[in-house]
Amino acid sequence: MADRTYGISDLASEFDVTTRTIRFYEEKGLLNPLRDGQTRIYSAADRIKLKLILRGKRLGLSLEDSKSIIEMYHPEHDNSPQLIKLIDKIRERRRLLKEQLKQQLQDLQDMIYELDQAENRCQDALNEINKTNH
Question: Which tens digit of pLDDT belongs to each residue from 71-121?
Fold first, then answer.
């Protein structure tokens, strides 16, 4: 029985991406469909790669990171190195996100403080105006 194949529109629809996105991943060497004239024919392995690329994107991995991790996969071998690399990338991404969120929280707290100060100055000025008018 032959492996199932997919057209570019099939994959685009299944994963809710544009055909342009899939062609971009192909240009970057992440996907390598067969060709029948101008028609791209994607294998089950290409479908899995696309799924992994999109998962990596959701995790915030670069395309280069996703590509190197995907290329490490060999079904007939122990994939511990691949899993270790993925865990390292996940931990690195988590650390960076925590740093970014910490900075964003500080920026928001600073903004709230500045808004409070501006409001207090305006209220003080308004109170002074009201005193002199009465």
Answer: 887 778 888 988 899 999 999 999 999 999 999 999 999 999 999 999 999
Partners of residue 36 on adjacent β-strands: 39
Q: How many residues are recorded in the chain?
A: 134
Measured distance CA(58)–CA(66) in Å, rounded:
11
> Of 33, 24, 73, 34, which Cα lies nearest the Cα of 52?
73
Bridge partner residues of 34 (DSSP): 41
**Pairing state of beta strands 5-6 and 39-43?**
antiparallel
Dihedrals phi, psi of 42, to nearest 5 degrees: -95, 140
Residue 42 CB contacts under 8 Å (≥ 6 apart), including other chains: 5, 6, 7, 8, 10, 11, 31, 33, 50
Q: Quote the distance between the C-alpha of residue 88 and its chain's center.
A: 16
pTM (predicted TM-score): 0.71
Number of H helices, E strands in the chain: 5, 3
Distance CA 59, CA 13 (A): 21
C-alpha 44: how far from its chain's center?
23
